Amino acid sequence: MIRLSLSQRLSVVFCGLLLVCCGALAMMQMRTSVMHEQEVVQRLSRGLAEHIAQSGELMDRDGLRPANVRDLFGKLMAVNPSVEVYLLDDRGRILGHDAPEGHLRRKQVDVAPIQQLLRGDRLPILGDDPRSAHGRKVFNAAPLRVQGRDVGYIYVVLLGEERDALVADVTASAALRTTLWSVSLVAVLGLLAGIAAFRWVTRPLRRLTARMQAFDVEGRAPRAPDDRQPPLAPGEKDEIAILEHSFSHMSRRIGEQWQELSRQDQQRRELVANISHDLRTPLSSLHGYLETLALKDGTLDPAERRRYLEIALGQSRKVGRLVQELFELARLEYGAVQLDRQAFSLPDLVQDVFQKFELAAEARRQVLVADIPPGVPAVVADIGLVERVLTNLIDNAIRHTPGGGRIELALRTGARGVVVTVADDGPGIPAELRRRLFETPSVLASGDRADGGLGLMIVRQILQLHGSGIELVEDGRGAVFRFELPTTTRPLEGS
Q1: Could you tell me how far CA 483 lies from the centroid of its own chain?
Q2: What percent of the chain has pLDDT over 90?
Q3: Which residues neighbour 7 within 8 Å (Cβ) at sequence distance 6 or greater?
Q4: Cα(434)–Cα(338) distance, rounded to whole angstroms?
Q5: Under 8 Å CB-to-CB from 372, ≥6 apart: which residues?
Q6: Mean of the pLDDT values across residues 347-376?
Q7: Helices and strands (H and E) in the chain: how many
Q8: pTM of the model
Q9: The CATH number of 337-486 is which of 3.30.565.10, 3.30.70.260, 2.60.40.10, 3.40.50.300?
Q10: Could you say which of 3.20.20.80, 3.50.50.60, 3.10.360.10, 3.30.450.20 is the CATH number of the domain covering 6-167?
Q11: Are 444 and 318 within 8 A, CB to CB?
């Protein structure tokens, strides 16, 4: 099966339609030419039949005079071979003629066209051809009167058999060739113009096809779209131009989504690698101490046994905490958590969270400070998840602030809600690690603060559920985190 391009298919269809139209045009021209000739001949021969009727005594009171009819008709047809003359009675029956033997195919003609001609109806008017079983030709007719009484008609076929034979021969030799050459020339010129027009019309479509074919080559990442394309004009009605701009917008979105998916896939790989490391370290330590207890149980004194058990329990708590955070992060990322929004006092919640960390801060000689001005409005959020956010941030600050340091939590009323700031005076976060602070977990076993850890990833997911976000602020202190909670049920815009 031959496969053609869109331009080729359009050209083939156009060529077919052009040939059909040229053929129809040629037929119409030929028919118009014939009708024009018939009308001219009929107008020029308007008085011919009447002249014949008055030229001789063709009938008398006794009937037809065959000798006179044959003599007159023979002279007329000798002078003008294209005409054929017939003598009809008042019903159209042929009474006299000069046709050769066997050429007469009818014995009667229809008188209705004769009456139309005598009334002066619009020309051309076609009448029956006596020398054809079904043919009709232009004619001229006049009533034949004998002693003042109409007894029949003189019926003159203006384009007879000899004229038809001559016209057919001339047409075959010259007119037909001229018509065919004219139609062929029009067809060729129209085809060339149509092909050029189709190529011009489909050029944007071919360009779009090339862009779409180059969009994804061999499964690689989509290439960036061509931003050099001019913007779509207002009120643009060109469907191909609209399609091309829509494709550019779609390819740009797909490219961005591809990059985001690639970035997320890389994060997942790093998450798995980091979590594997985080689990391996405490599990190895837990296994080592438990194995020591099992092998040396009889030789260990109670103090050593208790120390080993406390170390093993500490490693077990680390593993349990990591698993719990992983489970919580998975539920947040996959939409398994439904918010229970309610209005509550954020200062009261801050005091409750501070009470949980008082002993831990005192053990490290750290100071917890709550900077809460009067008149802070109630926020509308999930109180349990907001408590989780504050807990993770303060716990993160306590673990990474040196002894004797200061941890401050401040509340301020903003234009769209309550702004919460958690700051410490620790070593801070290196600039090269801040970009992915909320995307990559840390090595929990070492307590290194190079990355944000699962706690900060959970904080970001919780705040996103509330229509908000978290940012790391640079103000000269250690690490300063800031986020905003809404005071209405409407999510924060632009967060």
Answers
A1: 42
A2: 12
A3: 195, 198, 199, 202, 206
A4: 30
A5: 347, 350, 410, 411
A6: 91
A7: 11, 14
A8: 0.47
A9: 3.30.565.10
A10: 3.30.450.20
A11: yes
